[in-house]
Amino acid sequence: MAEPIKTVIGFDFGTKWIGVAVGQTLTRQANPLAAIRNNDWKSIESILDEWRPQVVVVGLPLNMMGEHQAMSARARRFGRQLQGRFGVNTVLIDERLTTREAYQVAIENQRRKSKSEIDSIAAALITESWLREHADAEPV
Q1: How far apart are CA 78 and CA 73, in angstroms?
Q2: For residues 98 and 12, is the Cβ–Cβ distance under 8 A?
Q3: Where are the chain's structural domains?
Q4: Tell me: domain 7-139, CATH 3.40.50.11440, correct?
């Protein structure tokens, strides 16, 4: 029996901007949405209401050695807040190098992107990573 199609919302947590993307398990692809300002819970609620995801993925920033850093704790807290406020199934996934890769995507598309657009491209990459290997996701 085939697994039901799931909608996934991905977040690339940052201190100023939070990148946002939506993906689905059928295609294993994600698309960037408009980034939101950090602590804009009303916009987050609107996104969750519109897309009704079965899973929310939050990028977990780790250093190159795979160790937690200061931003790791903030991303974890954000994930717990999402789960607590909205009752959504939230997972954390390693996001190493996604911002660098997002800049590369923008260069390849020959389009200059704002920092908030880069953050949402990074959120799409995080979401696609989870879609490919969701068994590696770490619970909040």
Answers
A1: 9
A2: yes
A3: 7-139
A4: no
Contact 121, 32 (CB under 8 A): yes
HEC per residue, 6-57: CEEEEEECCCCEEEEEEEECCCCEEEEEEEEECCCHHHHHHHHHHHCCCEEE
Structure tokens at 77: 């807290």
pTM recorded for the entire structure: 0.85
Say if CB 21 and CB 33 are below 8 A apart: yes
C-alpha triplet 79, 88, 2: angle, nearest 5°: 120
CB 29 within 8 A of CB 126: no
> Is the sign of the CA dihedral 26, 8, 60, 20 positive or negative?
positive
List the pLDDT tens digit at each of the 140 positions of the chain: 456 769 999 999 999 999 999 999 888 999 999 999 999 999 999 999 999 999 999 999 987 777 778 889 999 999 999 999 999 999 999 887 677 767 677 667 766 678 778 889 899 999 999 998 874 555 56
- State how far the Cα of 122 lies from the Cα of 51, in Å rounded to an integer: 19
